[in-house]
Specification:
This protein is an alpha/beta fold. It is 27% helix and 26% strand. The termini are far apart.
Length: 186
């Protein structure tokens, strides 16, 4: 559906480019944890189609207002917005084992309770569900303070410690790590 982008257009984290590598399909149920203004949500909405669903989750009302507006403009009727502090257990309100994929894009560096966010992702994913991790590279010349960033192997160890198995690395641009994990059968 989305052709690969030329290298010069993938310098920054590009939701279209990254999600094209995830393997989303029509009918899938997905969530964007820490959705911000909804760039990932809108791309995912097109990929999962009218039979799929996208949950846009953020703690900020302003972000969710933006997602709702943009979704209406784009005609993305398969998007729902959820206000939640993902560091709080079960905060998303989503049912256990209900999703095919969860996106964690530029969210873990912001949290001192990373394990809680990962635990919520694990809870809502179906067995073998996909977890997309995309965050700032430790040595990127721009982005958040370096002490907030996760080194790639440390990120993988953290995520695997919460019940996920590293499936593959993906191209996430010059400044970001991109990895896909699967939920281990529980």
């Amino acid at each position: 559906m989305f052709p690969p982008l030329p290298a010069q257009q993938t310098k920054f984290l590009n939701p279209t480019h990254v999600l094209a590598q995830l393997g989303l399909a029509p009918g899938m149920q997905v969530a964007d944890f820490g959705c911000g203004s909804g760039d990932w949500v809108l791309v995912a909405s097109r990929l999962v189609g009218t039979d799929g669903k996208v949950a846009a989750i953020d703690v900020q009302d302003s972000a969710l207002s933006s997602v709702r507006s943009r979704s209406r403009i784009e005609g993305a009727l398969n998007v729902s917005s959820i206000r939640a502090d993902l560091e709080t257990p079960r905060a998303s309100g989503l049912p256990n084992a209900s999703l095919d994929a969860v996106f964690l894009s530029n969210i873990l560096f912001q949290s001192s309770k990373k394990e809680r966010i990962l635990h919520e992702a694990f809870r809502v994913l179906k067995p073998k569900g996909l977890l997309l991790f995309a965050d700032w590279k430790e040595d990127a010349p721009l982005g958040p303070a370096r002490e907030l960033r996760l080194e790639k192997s440390a990120a993988a160890k953290l995520i695997e410690g919460e019940g996920f198995s590293h499936a593959r690395d993906i191209e996430a641009g010059a400044y970001h790590i991109g990895m896909v994990f699967t939920k281990v059968q529980s």
